[in-house]
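Filed under: proteins

Residues; backbone shape codes:
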Amino acid sequence: MDVPPLIGVSTYLEDEVSWGVWTMPAALLPAGYPGLVQAAGGLAALLPPDAPERAAAAVARLDGLVIAGGPDVEPVRYGAERDPRTGPPARARDAWELALIDAALVLGTPLLGICRGMQLLNVALGGTLVQHLDGHTGATGVFGSHLVKPVPGSRYAAVVPEESAVPAYHHQCVAELGRGLAVSAQADDGTVEAIEPAGEQWVLGVQWHPEMGEDTRVMRGLVEAAAAWAGRRTG
């Protein structure tokens, strides 16, 4: 029986979380992320924030990597002053996930960035972010939905060739693209919804939340690339 590829997913580190009789610090992740990995045929491994110098060792043990959604990237990471509407910093997570992205790009590990993860991919390659935009959420704590149109010939279009509705909850987006990145999907209002670099390595960032929907194609693209990557490394 073939071994499913091992897909690491970055997680939150929260100071106070309650469950059962306990209230204490916790590393956590919405269940949609590992559920989507599993539905797409992969094995999910959760990656809590750690020392950035340990990122390469972690990524070397994975077949694929997902940088999950979450808090706003600290603006100092892309040379900007903080907008009052930008959320509080998550410095340990920023440092850890940027190191994970750097390691994946160096090692050639297939990589998917989701929402914050796409923004961090752009920042890791020298890009910048719009710190606030309206119209890309539902009510507070409720995911919205809008159409995303793929760019023909892109990696994203290869897995989702048609315009489709996606679940979204974000108030920031890509401004200036990072080095070597191209837009591979856009919303009707022109917001960059997916980015990817040229080259053979499977790398994709999506601004929406596929883990909140039923379409597994984006994650299946990562899992299939991870399986091929695992085969090349062990073959």
